Amino acid sequence: KCLLFFLLIHLYYRIFRTDVASVTSWLAPIIWEGTFDATLIDFIYKQQNLSIATTVFALGKYTSFLKDFLESAEQHFFVGFRVHYYLFTDLPEEVPEVKMGENHSLTVRKVPSLNRWQDISMGRMEILEKLIENELAKEADYIFCLDVDTKFYGRWGVETLGHLVGVIHPWFFDAPRDRLTYERRPESQAYIPAGEGDYYFTGAAFGGSLEDVHHLTKTCREQMNIDAANSIEAIWHEESHLNKYFLYNKPSKLLSPEYLWRDINAGAAQIKIIRFSHVAKNNADVRPNP
Ligand code: UD2
Q1: How far is the CA of 39 from the centre of ligand 1 (A)?
Q2: 282 pLDDT exceeds 50?
Q3: Whether residue 224 has its Cβ less than 6 Å from ligand 1
Q4: Mean pLDDT of the chain, nearest integer
Q5: Which residue ranges make up each domain of the chain?
Q6: What number is the average pLDDT over the span 17-46?
Q7: pLDDT, tens digit, for every residue of 36-63?
Q8: Which of 242, 249, 235, 245 has the alpha carbon at shortest distance from 203?
Q9: Is 62 annotated as contributing to ligand binding?
Q10: Closest residue (by CA) to atom 19 of ligand 1?
Q11: % of the chain beyond a pLDDT of 70
Q12: Ligand 1, atom 10: nearest CA belongs to which residue?
């Protein structure tokens, strides 16, 4: 009865977006404000008692982003659902005390320091692969992997769940295909030939079911190892490999750039709400190397 009630409300409440595409050519939904009913979708997913593992890495000076990341996540990220954050850092003593909401918990894992930020960024794939393989099987239903130099400003909830979920990069969501910054050197495993590619996805946020994200992280790790053996590093590191992966393993759901915007102070007509955004950073101040 309750479900019927919500369905009826939903029918009356339907809002359409005509200014953006809300489905891909392979029939995956693209999530924008106005394409879902938060109350209804929360109600449906509540029945399932889901658990969402969420990983974040903060090595070296990137620990300074943790407070805002965690505090804002606790206001907006899967509120009311089970969330287990896995935080990887070389400086556990610098992890701030942040009060977790109901059914939210945080585990800190120490990882070795690395000298190159590129290795830190790319190295995430292998750590995620092993985390899923060794620990998460009975722990979680879904996983999201997020950059730490970010902050939440609005709801990020169950509308984002799916088998394989990518976020459209905020700089390229309305760019023509020839401007997408895929790896263009055939020597790299991340190579995408001119004329191919659908969307350009950010490396700052992706997720899905454990099985799908395990396959994604394992494949990217293997492809990066082949590149390393051939002394080549893809132009945008693991993000280039992620884009190659998504070209041949289509995401089942896409999140609009509301779910990773470029700058809280920047706007665009299509962005009705900023949910999660990159924070401004001076790379020279926070990275261990140029
Ligand atoms: C882009 C991507 C990022 C990654 C990178 C690869 C966006 C918004 N972000 O960001 O996901 O694909 O390109 O070139 O598209 N980290 C540390 N300590 C360090 C360096 C990095 O913990 O010293 C971690 C941290 O979680 C950070 C992530 O690695 O969020 C990615 O590094 P970045 O944010 O500096 O990379 P950026 O901004 O070039």
Answers
A1: 33
A2: yes
A3: no
A4: 95
A5: 36-286
A6: 96
A7: 999 999 999 999 999 999 999 999 999 9
A8: 242
A9: yes
A10: 117
A11: 94
A12: 204
pLDDT of residue 278: 96
Q: Whose alpha carbon is nearest atom 14 of ligand 1?
A: 236
| Least confident residue range of 6-10, 171-175, 217-221, 228-232 | 6-10
167 is in an annotated binding site: no
Which member of 33, 183, 239, 258 is catalytic? 239
- Residue 57 alpha carbon, nearest atom of ligand 1: 26
37 is in an annotated binding site: no
Distance CA(174)–CA(119), nearest Å, equals: 30
Phi, psi angles (nearest 5°) of residue 11: -60, -40
pLDDT of residue 7 exceeding 90, the answer is: no
CATH 3.40.50.300 fits 36-286, yes or no: no
Instruction: Note the pLDDT of residue 8.
Output: 59
| HEC-encoded secondary structure of the chain | CHHHHHHHHHHHHCCCCCCCCCECCCCCEEECCCCCCHHHHHHHHHCCCCEEEEEEECCHHHHHHHHHHHHHHHHHECCCCEEEEEEEECCHHHCCCCCCCCCEEEEEEECCCCCCHHHHHHHHHHHHHHHHHHHHCCCCCEEEEECCCEEECCCECHHHCCCEEEEECCCCCCCCHHHCCCECCCCCCCECCCCCCCCCEEEEEEEEEHHHHHHHHHHHHHHHHHHHHCCCCCCCCHHHHHHHHHHHCCCCEEECHHHCECCCCCCCCCCCCCCEEECCCCHHHHCCCC
Quick: pLDDT tens for 57-74: 999 999 999 999 999 999
